[in-house]
Amino acid sequence: MVDIEHKIQNVVIRATYRDTEFDLGILSGVLREARYDPSVFPGIAYSPPDSEASFLIFSTGKVNCVGAKSVEGAREAIRDLTDEIRESGVEALPEPEVEVENIVASLDFGREFDVERIARSFRNVQYEPDVFPGLVFKLDDPKATVLLFPEGKGVCVGVKSEEDVGRAAERVTEVVE
C-alpha cells in the first residue's frame, strides 16, 4: 500500500431537523452575526465567531455546514448550532439527521506525473491545459474526482469519508503506474 499524504480542507454536511420549520426572521435575530435577506437568498448565512464551520439555514429545517476540517469537527459544529438554536427558545427541536455530502482534501503523491501521457492513456480523464493546468481523473470505486497536477500534488473531491480520500489517492497511483 502506498502512503500518500493528504489533508482534509473542507467537509460539507447536511443536517435535517425532521418535522421542523424555522422562522428565519426570528432565528436570524437570535444568532449572533447571522445574515438574512430573503430578497437576496432564501436562508440564513451564519458564521459563528468561534467556529471554523459556517452554515446555511433554511426554513424547511435543513442546514448545510461547510468549512470544518474533519467529519467529527462538522458534527460537533452541528451539535453546537443545535444547542444554540435550542437556547434561543426553539422548543422541541429534534436531534438532526446528519449526512456527509462531500469531503475536499489536498493530496501530495511525493512524485511528479506526466499528465499528458496519462491523458492520452486513459478514457476517464479530462485534460485541457489551456483551460486548467490539472488533469481531472474520475473514479468509480471509490466514487471520487481527483485533480492531478504535474508536480505531484492533487485535490480529491466528491468522497464521503476520509478513508475514501486515501482509497482514491491509492487508486490513482495504481492506475497511472
From TrEMBL:
Q: Identify the domain of life.
A: Archaea
Against InterPro entries, the record matches this protein to: TBP, TBP_dom_sf
Q: Which GO terms describe its biological process?
A: DNA-templated transcription initiation
What keyword terms does UniProt attach to this protein? DNA-binding, Repeat, Transcription, Transcription regulation
**Sequence ranges of the sequence repeats:** 100-176
Q: Does the keyword Cell membrane feature in the UniProt annotation?
A: no
Note the Pfam families from the entry: TBP
Name the family: Belongs to the TBP family.
Specify the protein name. TATA-box-binding protein
